[in-house]
Amino acid sequence: MSSIDALRFEPPPPFPEGEALRGDVRAFLAEHLPRRSIKEGVGIWGGYDREFSRKMGARGWIAMTWPRRYGGHERNALERYVVLEEMLAAGAPVGGHWIADRQSGPLILRVGTEAQKRDILPRIAAGEIGFCIGMSEPDSGSDLASVRTRAAAVEGKSGGGFLINGTKLWTSNAHRADYMILLARTGEAGEQRHGGLTQFLVDLKNTKDISIRPVHNLAGDHHFNEVVFQETFLPAHTVLGEVGRGWQQVTSELALERSGPERFLSVFTLLVELARALGPDPSERARIAMGRIVAHIYTLRRLSRSVAGMLQAGTNPAQQAALVKDLGTTLEQEIPEIARLLVDEEPDRGSASNYAAVLALSMMNAPSFTLRGGTREILRGIIARGLGLR
Ligand SMILES: Cc1cc2nc3c(=O)[nH]c(=O)nc-3n(C[C@H](O)[C@H](O)[C@H](O)COP(=O)(O)OP(=O)(O)OC[C@H]3O[C@@H](n4cnc5c(N)ncnc54)[C@H](O)[C@@H]3O)c2cc1C
Fold this sequence. Notes:
By secondary structure, the chain is of the alpha+beta class. Helices cover 43% and strands 14% of the residues.
């Protein structure tokens, strides 16, 4: 494959049948969202609402592409895309199942044991349980291969297991999640820098010796956490996939994390409020600015749907996913800045004006858009490698 082919985007497959589904999702949202605050929808893929997740599970809108025998619905990636974009555009509280549906469940489906699949996947599909991602550490973010959390094999205790010691950081929703997929070091890296890593399926509600402490973000909210493992015993059956193959598993998980519509719709509710604030007869400057934003979103949507089509076709579009995330998050960061220049209203989170409140939250969350899920510099390195430039 020539280097330019690594960044090829096939036109997104036409999908007119998706429009009926879109109508169903909108009707569902009209019924279940009206009493919610618009502020919830900003930045982190909506609020965390177990009841709402259960309702989505009951409609068959979680685990849409998974096999029926594990609670899935055997629908295609483009149908799933329709549900995701409608939920995000409406600012729906999808945080309770987002990570499990997007990456933890698909990873378990791919590398989990039959017992893990049967135990966990149907509960994700029903919207009953949430997951968090235990990758980053105080000194390991971009350079994930340097994680220091240690998993030491121990004998005894009905089949043996591992003693975990270390600290995870920036763990989104660890304080609410039922499970964490933990990345830990089980062996020496050896000649392969990425060797010696293993993933574990950690039952956060029923495992002793784990402490979860809040880390407040710039907006003053408790979203992420520090999670400390101190002599924490994990039975052998909690190993997810193969011992020593954690790096390969993590990197395939990241491709799923990077290409979806959540990478350009985080502040879509602000765009809607901006259009409302500008009114029916905006200035020429405002029209040009809005036209530019909408044209960018339209293009990003095509790119992102193209990636969904590639996932549906069974390829691993890691480079394309990195490109969508880089372009999408750059736009997401620009939207609050453009809004500020167009409407003469101060950002104020406590304001009765939806525009002022959503603008404030968008501005405070925006710096994180180009960090979470891989920083801009790291993504550009991946794209450059795909183009054969490094
Ligand atoms: C809102 C939010 C939610 C998050 N949720 C989670 C979560 O649930 N679970 C989890 O595990 N992590 C989570 N993270 C952590 C996130 O993945 C890391 O912040 C990210 O990977 C960067 O790591 P770091 O913060 O350690 O920064 P560093 O890796 O220390 O990077 C600092 C700066 O140096 C640059 N840099 C680093 N290496 C290179 C290089 N080789 N070349 C060029 N520049 C480089 C980076 O781009 C960045 O600008 C979350 C982060 C945010 C903001």
